[in-house]
Amino acid sequence: MAQHYRVGRLEQEIEREVNDILLKRVRDPRVAGVTITGVTVTGDLQQATIYYSILSDKASDDEKTATGLTKATGLIRSELGSRLSIYKTPELTFERDHSVQYGSHIDQLINKLNRQD
After folding, report:
1. How far apart are CA 19 and CA 41, in angstroms?
2. Which domain CATH number covers 26?
3. For residue 27, which phi and psi values (nearest 5 degrees)?
4. Are 54 and 116 in contact (CB under 8 A)?
5. Mean pLDDT, the chain, as a whole number?
6. Distance (Å, rounded) from C-alpha 96 to C-alpha 53?
7. How far is C-alpha 55 from the chain's CA centre?
8. What is residue 18's predicted lDDT score, i.e. its pLDDT?
9. pTM attached to this predicted model
């Protein structure tokens, strides 16, 4: 039971710290507009998946951002290791969060239906 609380706290802490690291330490212009939307950590605290979103819908921007985050993973992980008080820093994986785009699409459909009435 206590393990679940620890995982949740660690997820929140990683999200806060990665946002700060991206703003202050990573100088790569490819990751300039990245927003961290969530983090999931495995039960053994060895791997963390970080979900991000970007404002652009272009496929080329998505690829550039993914490449930039992959290149910055080492820096982000080492910074996390120095900022967090845990035994081993988890391996980081970045995945694009499509929920913002999906929500925008649903809003457009609802507005379209309202205009037809």
Report:
1. 16
2. 3.30.300.20
3. -100, 0
4. no
5. 88
6. 6
7. 13
8. 95
9. 0.83
Number of neighbouring beta carbons within 10 Å of residue 68:
19
| pLDDT 10s digits, 16-68 | 999 999 999 999 999 888 999 999 999 888 999 999 998 877 778 889 999 99
- Alpha carbon distance 83, 18 (integer Å): 10
Is-contact 28 68, C-beta < 8 A? yes
Task: Pull the structure tokens for residue 72.
Answer: 């910055």
**What six digits make up the tokens of 23?**
């703003």
**Which residues are bridge partners to 49 per DSSP?**
40, 93
What's the total number of domains in the chain?
1
Give the SS3 label for residue 29: helix
Q: Which domain holds residue 55?
A: 2-116
